[in-house]
């Protein structure tokens, strides 16, 4: 599996890249913001993009713009959105990008179990919709 990671916090980006690489995931590219993230996805055609919802410059919801642009322009690329908060409004936005699947919304605390995180990536790549179990969501498909 080829992955692009879009993360605005350098230390978290480094830890995520290291954890994925150690588990046999090819991190094809990284980016720290909206424009760079879209450029890397267009250039590298990954299987899945991991994008932090809170990107520079504002660290609010800039990652949703990245996810929306990838969803519209690269329908075959899986999207896994990371957040530090369980925000059901963002989940609706993520799931709305791909109602048929290939998307996920997980809390950053899941990065503490890299093996489980890789399983989540594989589920998104396989076309599933994966929602963090700590996020209230009807028809929860996580686990």
Short summary:
The protein has 143 residues and is α/β, with parallel strands linked by helices. The chain has five helices and six strands, in the order βαβαβαβαβαβ. β3, α3 (62-73) and β4 (78-83) form a beta-alpha-beta unit.
Q: Approximately how much beta-strand content do the residues carry? A: 15-25%
Sheet with the most strands: spatial strand order: 2-1-3-4-5-6
User: Per the principal axes of the C-alpha atoms, what is the gross shape?
Assistant: globular
- Element-by-element helix/strand order: EHEHEHEHEHE
Low-confidence stretches: none
Radius of gyration: 13 Å
Number of DSSP strand runs: 6
Structural class designation: alpha/beta
* End-to-end Cα distance: 21 Å
Let me know the average pLDDT: 88
Task: Note the total helix count.
Answer: 5
Please bin the fraction of helical residues: 40-55%
Main beta sheet: 6 strands, parallel
